[in-house]
Structure formats: C-alpha cells, structure tokens
Amino acid sequence: MIIDAHSHVHSPVDEHIALLDAAGIDRAVLFPTRPHPERASDLGSLRREFALLDDALNGRVDQATAYRTAWAELDAALAAHPDRFLGFGSVPLTLSSAEVAAWVEREIVGRGLRGIGELTPPPGRADLVEPVLRAAADHGGLPVVVHGFAPTTADDLRTLAVLAAGHPKVPLVVSQLGGLNWMDTVELVRDAPNMYLELSTAPTIIAVRMAIAEVPERTLFGSDAPYGDPVVTRTAVERVTPPGELRDRVLGGTAAALFAPDSAPARPGSVPLEPLTE
C-alpha cells in the first residue's frame, strides 16, 4: 500500500483524487486548510492564497472562523472518499491545557480522526505543542504532525525534540523534512525514537537520500499537495531507493503502521509508477 503522509483538502476534491490516481497512491493523510493555492489562476490570486497561508503560519487568524470553514471542507472530503483519505484534525494552540484536552476528546477522537495535525505554532513557540502531546498520550498515543518548514525555526525543531522525549509514547512527525534546517532535523529525528520525518518540500534530492539513509524506519513519503505533486515526490523517493523492502516502507509501510493499522490491501487496479533507480 502506498500512502501519501501529507496532503491538504483540495477544492474541488475530485482534482485531488485524480492526482492520487496518477501517482498510483492508495490513500492520503488529509489535513484541513484555509488557503487553496490550487484555485489560483495567476500570480496575483496565488499571492492572495499565500497571504492566507502566511497569516495561518504566524498565528494571525480568527481561529473560530478558520476552523469552522476548514473542518467543513475536511468533513465533506472524508465523507465523499472514505476509502482514499485518512483524516487528521488540528488543535488551536491558543487554548489552555484543559481546553486542549477537551478539544482532542471531542474534535479528534470523537470524530474518528486518525491523528492531530498539521499543527503550525508561530515561530519561536513550538512549546505550545506540549499540551497537545499530553492529550495525545491520554488517548493511546495519537500521532501528532507539526509543520517543519519556515517559519519554523531551528530552535523550534530542537524544542520539538525535547517535547518528544517527554512524551515517548506519542509519535511526533516533523513535516517538510524540516525545511532548510533539514540536516539538523535528520539528526534530531534519528536520535529520538518516537519522532518521524516526512519528506515533502525537500530542498534537494540529496536531502531525501540522506534522510532515508539515516532514519530508514521512521521516514515517510509525503507530497504536501496541493503545494507539491504526488508523482514528483514519489519519483524522488524511488530515485534514491532500490526496489524492495526499504522503498516499500518509506512509500507506505511505515505510514500504514502509524496512521492506518487497520488498512485494507492496496486497491485493485492501483497503478505503479515505473521504478527509477540510480
């Protein structure tokens, strides 16, 4: 089974299904989102969508409105394609610890979602993730996915490693290979048994190669669609791994065990891409 470990709700959702089909991907982890860059038809409209993204990443949003709209889209996508998507839900990081616990109980566990994310703490405030990890631990170790690219800082990534050590039963996934801090991120994840590294938005192909070499059992293929493309990111993994157990683990085996232990076998008719090796 091939699983895209990082994607966002598309509008319309059928465009996302077409991308998954083209890449031969069976299932995708799906996060709610406010921005929709896939709607942009020119640079001006793309800038408007990225302004929404920048506001979200830097904590400049009306969270009540943002969550209401984004979660309605997530619910619709999950209802339309329950066999293709693994739903995740975010948590407002401005809540108190007690409110976080209640939110996770009601909005994550109560809705049957597979995990928490993608969390986007403002730069310098990765410490805000701690109450979420505590709540995730209370529910058997729900996986938690945290944004890893800018504006996440190198200090934020180190903070996440410290927090992960304090909650060893919670799988903590750092997205986007840690962005330009990817070397440090690979080392942090390598040395933390409950941390995982998702490969989307890798700055260079050598970053993908080194991440898989250093953390072969805790590295996850992801596209960050619609910002990335599932065919391109799958091809990158296949370019740096030989056919066999390692490639299968990165492309879906690890994600299936982490996010979807009850997953059925790959869909009949799943389309494999032509293998690429060096």
From TrEMBL:
<keyword id="KW-0378">Hydrolase</keyword>
<dbReference type="Pfam" id="PF04909">
    <property type="entry name" value="Amidohydro_2"/>
</dbReference>
<dbReference type="InterPro" id="IPR006680">
    <property type="entry name" value="Amidohydro-rel"/>
</dbReference>
<protein>
    <submittedName>
        <fullName>Metal-dependent hydrolase</fullName>
    </submittedName>
</protein>
<dbReference type="GO" id="GO:0016787">
    <property type="term" value="F:hydrolase activity"/>
</dbReference>
<feature type="domain" description="Amidohydrolase-related">
    <location>
        <begin position="55"/>
        <end position="259"/>
    </location>
</feature>
<dbReference type="InterPro" id="IPR032466">
    <property type="entry name" value="Metal_Hydrolase"/>
</dbReference>
